[in-house]
Design a protein that fits this description.
Blueprint lengths: L9 H13 L10 E8 L15 H11 L3 H9 L2 E8 L10 E3 L17 H20 L4 E7 L3 H13 L3 H4 L8 H15 L9 H11 L2 H15 L4 E3 L2 H13 L7 E3 L6 H10 L15 H19 L3 H4 L6
Parallel strand pairs: 1-2, 1-4, 2-3, 4-5, 5-6
The chain binds nicotinate mononucleotide (NCN) and 5,6-dimethylbenzimidazole (DMD).
Nicotinate mononucleotide binds next to strand 4, helix 5 and helix 10.
Amino acid sequence: MTKPPGSLGVLEDVAAQLAGIAGTCPPPLPEPATVAVFAGDHGVHAQGVTPWPQEVTAQMVANFLAGGAVVNAFAAGLGARVVVVDVGVAATLEATPALLDRKVRRGTADLAVGPAMTLDEACRAVESGIEVATALAADGSGCLVTGDMGIANTTASAALVCAFTGATPASATGRGTGIDDPTLARKVEVVSRAVARVPSRPTTPAAALAVLAEVGGLEHAGLAGFVLGAAAARVPVLLDGAIAGSAALVAAVLCPTAMEYALAGHTSVEPGHAVALEALGLRPLLGLDLRLGEGTGALLALPLVQSAARALRDVATFDSAGVTEKN
Ligand SMILES: O=C(O)c1ccc[n+]([C@@H]2O[C@H](COP(=O)([O-])O)[C@@H](O)[C@H]2O)c1
Ligand SMILES: Cc1cc2nc[nH]c2cc1C
């Protein structure tokens, strides 16, 4: 390629990863992209860990389906499609073509006091994620993008990060949508209580699923499956923020090689996200202090991933362009 070796930096690693994923060089362009926004509610909302009412989850899902959220604005500019996967929204949602009804239950139970869900429920949500990724890949999506919506889901995310990495609740728990100091203290306490009930750093699939069921969320389960399904279909999966990062920790134990198909779009300001990415060995492409979720940070990174593939496909060689090599 007509550029000094290494001059595209991290994009060279991305390009090599895409070629490895496809098993061909140059790899196909990672397009069109589809964002799957996994949505669920959380019983831990009852602990006062977020200032937002639970019904905002369903209201934002309606907003996604109407095309009015930030994820829709970003996706439209990139020619990406947005689908919403209801794995556990408490309210009944109005059916539309972009809504995939995979509701396992109407929100999790309160993870502060007991298991968030049963093992069977966690497995069904994981399987929904696998199935959605498989269907989107079969339908021609060249890049699968994670999204999430669930008021209070940063509490479950922090608990998963602590359980899977051994990080302390104080270091992995953040302000989510924006909470004051007393609420943050309560949230750290809730995460501590949840993490105390599960084994630290599970290494077997059975143990990982048990931890997911105990302290996770339905959208985390769906997202873990989504990563596995993308990998099985040999399609790159671009991860968004703290929720996707914590879900990827589960996927990495279920199938370590699946992570070779994952790229981290950005690092969120939620502190557990950087902890998760470090544990996964994933380098985030962007750092923009985002904390929105929905798939927004991953979508912002999508042009970088696509440019990496374009460089491999379209750039002339020194020979073909008649450019003299270095001494
Ligand atoms: O993506 C992130 O890193 C991220 C960080 C903070 C908040 N969020 C979003 O905000 C919601 C959860 O925030 P909270 O404070 O209710 O736990 C949920 O809908 C997430 O999509 C997302
Ligand atoms: C308004 C709003 C939009 C969101 N998008 C993802 N999480 C969200 C949380 C809130 C509160």
